[in-house]
Amino acid sequence: MPEGMSEEQHDFQTEIAKAALMLVRLQPENIKDKRELDWSHEGIVAFSKICTHVGCPINLYEQQTHHVLCPCHQSTFDLSDGGRVIFGPAGHALPQLRIRANDQGYLEAMGDFSEPVGPAYWERG
Length: 125
Ligand code: FES
Prior knowledge:
Elements: H1 12-18, E1 21-25, H2 34-38, E2 44-48, E3 60-62, E4 67-69, E5 76-78, E6 84-87, E7 97-101, E8 107-113
The structure holds FE2/S2 (inorganic) cluster (FES).
């Protein structure tokens, strides 16, 4: 649940949809992007679940390759390499969320996503 958001907001469902997140545990030694190591907690990485092509929810994760597939037009992203696009029409990597474990052991975000969430054709300069 994004901080400061409540179910009373009139655009709650829209905001929740934009905040959809994938949490995946990788072996730290399998993480290729060293920045990603700093943005993760003990191999747990957090990426936007919204495809950067036209915004479908991504949900097909392949554990052996660490690839995640968008079911709409088959864009494929490598979660062990900064969410980089390795196949398909998506033009940008999946935005990553920097996380850590707090004093109680709960994962928490340390800021916003690395890039605007969603399709590449809006919210970008
Ligand atoms: S919306 Fe994901 S590949 Fe088109």
